[in-house]
């Protein structure tokens, strides 16, 4: 299905869903490194039925898992829907029931008030569990081998947004959630910590200046920083048939800085109106906190409050500095690269600590979902940038770093990305030497059909059966 009778652009081309669940033995060109033993998981929106909402948004489709399983230079693939309560309810009804972002005006009466979670945004492994995450629901556990849905991890008793950070030293998962109060589009946030054994050890509430869509946040060894930026949520807009989330730059940017251990007060820093979907990494040095982010002057994919979409906007790699010892609460901003891009990743063994290497997708023409056609490596110590151009007919997914071994140095390993081969209407998984992108992929794993554009993924090492 490449085109839909629905008018949404997020149901056309490689955004269009696939509706089969498959298992394939894959072939490869080049040599798949034999030391790769584990699985690359990806997840993305894939509505099982034609959406009922005329304003269907890409962020709200049913989650579909994709797994690439590596052993002895061979690769297997399987995909499965995440069988959330929403998926089950719609599956039984045989049709779409929910509006985008749970909008009650476009939700079937039999589904109003029901769980609308899609588990479609990120997948990570913590405390022995593979977790499918979305913006506003508890983590959903998935079997790492079969991709069978096991259900919500009830111990959280809280929403967990899609970008928790796992401290590589303590094994803790640090997380937050927005819109966590009773009712839709509240200005209440949650902040929590899950220990290495899976027990939730901290869960606190925070009152933000306004209701904001907050996709990602920043964590250092001792601190967490939550950006409240003016992509606002409004129940009145949703009920009036407008976009539930819209851009209100006059509200400015606000960032809550707090200690991970709960000591001290929250300090609010200020930044010019902007938007950040994704953070590369954050760390601390003395009394300063640093965060490398992909920053937009205005968020793509969402309108202004007047309903207009405005100009095309692109993400720039920038460094934010928070000086905890200074009297000013202003965030210092510094541009790190002039190549627009998205979906930044690091060697996650260095998350929350100072890192040298970073990777992202380059988009020279400016941000367009499904339009990034270069893989980029940035050495943050030397400033050197290298990239590999995939070609206009091979847009890529978020790159994921895989260490050569657990003992290897930072950046010593491989980079993987799924690309859509537009002329052939199918996908390939490309494997690069992570710090030598310019020589091209060392192996290309061929998928016999396409994998729709998705969001995020993770590598999990070990024998996956």
Provide keyphrases for this structure.
31 strands; 465 residues; nine-stranded antiparallel beta sheet; four-stranded antiparallel beta sheet; mainly beta
Q: Return the average pLDDT rounded to an integer.
A: 93
Q: Strand share of the residues?
A: 35-45%
Return the structural class. Answer: mainly beta
Largest sheet strand order = 27-28-29-30-1-4-3-2-31
Helix amount: under 10%
Shape: globular
- Specify the biggest β-sheet: 9 strands, antiparallel
Distinct helical segment count? 2
Distance between the termini: 32 Å
Overall number of strands: 31
Notes on the structure:
It is built from two helices and 31 strands. It has 465 residues and is mainly beta. It has a nine-stranded antiparallel β-sheet with strand order 27-28-29-30-1-4-3-2-31, with no helix packed on it. The protein is globular and about 55 Å long.
Summarize the structure.
Helices cover 3% and strands 39% of the residues. A hairpin with a 6-residue loop joins β9 and β10. With 465 residues, the protein is mainly beta.
Question: Topology of this structure?
Answer:
Blueprint: E1 23-30, E2 38-45, E3 63-71, E4 74-81, H1 85-93, E5 122-126, E6 129-133, E7 140-142, E8 149-152, E9 165-166, E10 173-177, E11 188-194, E12 200-207, E13 218-219, E14 223-228, E15 231-233, H2 235-239, E16 245-247, E17 253-259, E18 267-271, E19 275-285, E20 288-296, E21 316-323, E22 332-335, E23 341-345, E24 357-362, E25 374-379, E26 385-389, E27 400-403, E28 413-421, E29 426-433, E30 443-446, E31 456-461
Antiparallel strand pairs: 1-4, 1-30, 2-3, 2-31, 3-4, 5-6, 6-7, 7-8, 9-10, 10-11, 11-12, 13-14, 14-17, 15-16, 17-18, 19-20, 20-21, 21-22, 23-24, 24-25, 25-26, 27-28, 28-29, 29-30
